[in-house]
Amino acid sequence: MQIDPIQSLAQQLARLPGIGAKSAQRLAYHILDMPESGARELAAAIVRARDEVHPCPICGAYTSQDPCPICADASRFEDTICVVQEAKDVAAMEKMREYRGKYHVLQGTISPMDGIGPDDIRIRELLERVDKGGVKEVIVATNPDVEGEATAVYLARLLKERGVRCTRIAHGVPIGGNLEYIDEMTLFKAMEGRREM
Q1: In the beta sheet, which residues pair with residue 80?
Q2: Rounded Cα distance, 6 and 153, in Å
Q3: 17-38 confidence digits (pLDDT tens)
Q4: SS3 state of residue 137
Q5: N or C terminus: fewer CB in 10 A for the chain?
């Protein structure tokens, strides 16, 4: 039996984070109410993003260039690296327009309960960047949840062994919160109040 196209569209939309069955159905009807050109542009934008966007070979942020514009920007400080969990967190940090260093995306956190260890995220790549020299400070901006804190503590130990200053963003960011949902001023204050680990 063939699935109804509206139901199929709603099921696909419901796979997106934060979209429940009712929201997915509303979105499906909204897409159907759009002019055909708008719906085709939406579909084309999704396909283009999937085809052209990839992790930066240096920092791991999403980009369509090699390296990403932040890594390629010679005016940014090479001696400071801000470590974030996910590529979307780079965009959140950039909104505050105050941080002028580089980034490193871990692509996750250490989570033994989920079977994710240090070798399953981009810690090795971070240490390789630090070992090349020139890095004076690593700011750990993982989310302030159990996994984010465990990852921060693990990184602090490895970085101290290498003689690199390791700081943690202040907890103006609420416990259990995600960086992509935090306003610019809260992020600015959290960055300003970072502490030694």
Answers
A1: 137
A2: 47
A3: 999 999 999 999 999 999 999 9
A4: strand
A5: N
